[in-house]
Fold this protein.
Amino acid sequence: MTFTFRPLDPLHDAELLHAWVTHPKAAFWMMQDARLEDVERAYMEIAADEHHHAELGLQDGAPAFLMEKYDPAHRELVGLYEPLPGDIGMHFLTPPTDRPVRGFTRSVITAVMEHLFEDPAVERVVVEPDVDNKAVHALNEAVGFVPEREIQKPEKRALLSFCTRAQFLAARGVAV
């Protein structure tokens, strides 16, 4: 599967995102009760934030998933671990579907990691999924993430995990 990325347009994409983030499948996104205006506001704030960015992953030009990247020295993980130069935080969300495609989510996380590592300044990707999100833990492990420890964020108990460029390449079977 081939994906491209484009910056999220909070106003243009809000209806689509609202349907994705309020679906029961997206429970770990923690926006189940969000109104359309809440989604618009949340993504307007991200669009205005120099340390947090949202992008849509496109398949054949159509929105296929959401990816957020952030600087963990300034957002999400401030005070919860000691960030290193080259760290970038990441979230991704695949939308609900009536016709699941085998391997789709793994293809998405692989594309997200490739996209993040396209930036030569990125040395390591940091994630902090809910400790109960076992499906994403398995996906993270499949692309090279190594859990470090559980942390308490204001909104959840999270599993802090890291993936270096070398770990990602090794997980893909690419000689380093």
User: Anything to note?
Assistant: DSSP finds five helices and seven strands in the chain. The beta strands are 4-7, 52-59, 62-70, 87-93, 124-127, 146-152, 157-164. The mean pLDDT is 93. The helical segments are 10-21, 36-47, 104-117, 134-142, 165-171.
